[in-house]
Design goal:
Strand content: 5-15%
Shape: elongated
Strand order of the largest sheet: 1-2-3
Radius of gyration: 25 Å
Number of helices: 5
Largest sheet: 3 strands, parallel
Helix content: 25-40%
Structural class: alpha/beta
Number of strands: 3
């Protein structure tokens, strides 16, 4: 009788299914996590260049829930986005005279980018366009 060896090979289709399921679990798990980004201008806007860390920034601005804050001359709004990562329940008036760089569509993209770091933004954002001589902001800002 010839010397025959029987080798058991795992069903490659079953193996591929298992690997695919593990891959999906890993991707879903990683995308549902939020992580705290490094404190830098790349995430928090140019205002981060003036502070050592986020606590120094928060101490300086002294934000509180329910505050109404206006940033005049936001350019495209990256600082406000950074503030929103560090605060909750604040109304931000985002004001500029430059309607080329500050548009609702562009600002929405910046807020969407912020949501990579903080899924639930509880702040409210109101765009306001002024002129060289008037901010057009409401009186309570």
């Amino acid at each position: 009788m010839p010397n025959c060896k029987t080798t058991l090979k795992p069903d490659s289709l079953t193996m591929n299914k298992k690997l695919f399921i593990l891959f999906l679990i890993a991707v879903v798990g990683l995308t549902s996590l939020t992580f705290e980004p490094k404190f830098s201008y790349k995430v928090y806007g140019n205002v981060a260049n003036y502070f050592e860390n986020k606590n120094d920034l928060l101490t300086f601005f002294d934000f509180h829930k329910g505050d109404i804050v206006a940033e005049v001359g936001v350019y495209e709004g990256k600082n406000v986005c950074g503030f929103s990562l560090l605060t909750d329940s604040i109304t931000f008036y985002v004001q500029d005279i430059d309607t080329i760089h500050l548009t609702q569509t562009h600002f929405d993209k910046i807020i969407k980018r912020c949501k990579r770091y903080k899924k639930q933004l509880t702040n409210k954002f109101i765009l306001c366009f002024g002129t060289i001589t008037q901010t057009n902001l409401p009186d309570n800002t």
